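Example 9 (inverse folding). The structure is encoded as follows.
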């Protein structure tokens, strides 16, 4: 049972943002912190655990690779775990042929049957995009993608995948969504450009266990904020990483999300697809990715003749019964969020953050950086008051 009497710090949600906030409050301010999460575990969507049947470390909500070029973030997370030297490389299947991602020499040459040199790629892309709108003139995701890679590559590797992922035609999506797409002129097959990359050597489960191990932190899994909000003292600071629109009882309307479904299975082979993540670009194939988790930890010995897979399906988000994963950052939702952000700014003892609290997709390193910044801002505001 959670004791809220005299409580000064409540952290709602034990994902990266909430867990980092809690650790800083406990270790830097020596204050007691209660952390609650409606899930049975901390870590949010980053959680991983050992599958009892196969002994393989599985990511329960899609593959999560920690990658950053922010030195202060890497130094911080490295206090709680060592990282493997895993470098993320993604393959994609289109019309029963496999190609390397992201867009670069490997993909371009394989798709077109060419042998371009790095210095030839810019001219090739210019020829492919001739007559199309430029990146600065693109009005939607389709136009922006075509301006970056040309229509044939867009039609093969972006259009169908995007329609599945977002449940909308790319013409109806904002151009900014495609800005995360790397386009290279080299043979570099690493998916991320970040300086530091890897996965926690002992898994995300152990990482979050250590992050919340300070004796001043009390973690209560399986607790819903809305079951206990009436018990919170008025002078308690609530660090809130839940859905910001629900916090205000949908005062201005509901923010939209895309959800995901995960289908796990065990295959009686040592290696099913030869890589950790295989994308599926064809629109007719309902799933977007298949994860094979043993490839994240080639250094580990696992059970012979068996592997663990997860097929990922994008799905409609139907409100509180479904998990929200990707914010739909169109104009309507952007304007709606600004109303909630303005309402939150007027609250005295509430600090919203994280993916749900800030209604934006954040890589793990950016979430950690945001949490460190939020803690520093909180400390500064307290000094001003006192």
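The amino acid assigned to each position is listed next.
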């Amino acid at each position: 049972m959670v004791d809220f009497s005299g409580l000064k710090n409540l952290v709602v949600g034990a994902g990266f943002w909430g867990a980092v906030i809690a650790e800083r409050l406990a270790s830097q301010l020596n204050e007691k912190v209660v952390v609650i999460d409606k899930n049975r575990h901390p870590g949010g969507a980053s959680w991983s655990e050992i599958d009892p049947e196969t002994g393989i470390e599985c990511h329960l909500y899609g593959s999560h690779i920690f990658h950053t070029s922010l030195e202060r973030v890497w130094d911080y997370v490295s206090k709680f775990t060592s990282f493997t030297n895993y470098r993320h490389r993604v393959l994609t299947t289109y019309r029963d042929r496999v190609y390397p991602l992201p867009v670069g020499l490997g993909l371009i040459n394989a798709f077109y049957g060419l042998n371009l040199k790095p210095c030839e790629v810019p001219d090739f892309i210019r020829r492919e995009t001739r007559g199309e709108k430029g990146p600065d003139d693109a009005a939607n995701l389709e136009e922006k993608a075509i301006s970056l890679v040309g229509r044939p590559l867009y039609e093969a590797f972006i259009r169908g995948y995007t329609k599945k992922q977002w449940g909308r035609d790319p013409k109806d999506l904002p151009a900014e969504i495609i800005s995360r797409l790397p386009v290279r002129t080299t043979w570099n097959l690493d998916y991320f450009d970040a300086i530091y990359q890897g996965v926690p050597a002992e898994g995300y489960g152990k990482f979050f266990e250590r992050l919340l191990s300070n004796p001043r932190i009390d973690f209560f899994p399986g607790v819903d904020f809305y079951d206990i909000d009436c018990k919170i003292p008025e002078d308690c600071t609530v660090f809130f990483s839940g859905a910001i629109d629900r916090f205000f009882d949908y005062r201005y309307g509901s923010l939209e999300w895309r959800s995901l479904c995960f289908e796990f299975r065990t295959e009686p082979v040592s290696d099913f697809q030869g890589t950790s993540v295989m994308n599926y670009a064809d629109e007719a194939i309902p799933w977007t990715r298949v994860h094979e988790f043993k490839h994240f930890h080639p250094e580990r010995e696992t059970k012979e003749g068996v592997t663990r897979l997860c097929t990922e399906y994008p799905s409609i988000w139907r409100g509180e019964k479904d998990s929200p994963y990707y914010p739909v950052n169109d104009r309507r939702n952007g304007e709606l969020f600004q109303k909630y952000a303005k309402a939150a700014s007027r609250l005295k003892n509430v600090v919203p953050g994280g993916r749900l609290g800030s209604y934006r997709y954040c890589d793990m390193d950016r979430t950690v950086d945001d949490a460190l910044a939020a803690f520093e801002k909180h400390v500064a505001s307290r000094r001003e008051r006192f």
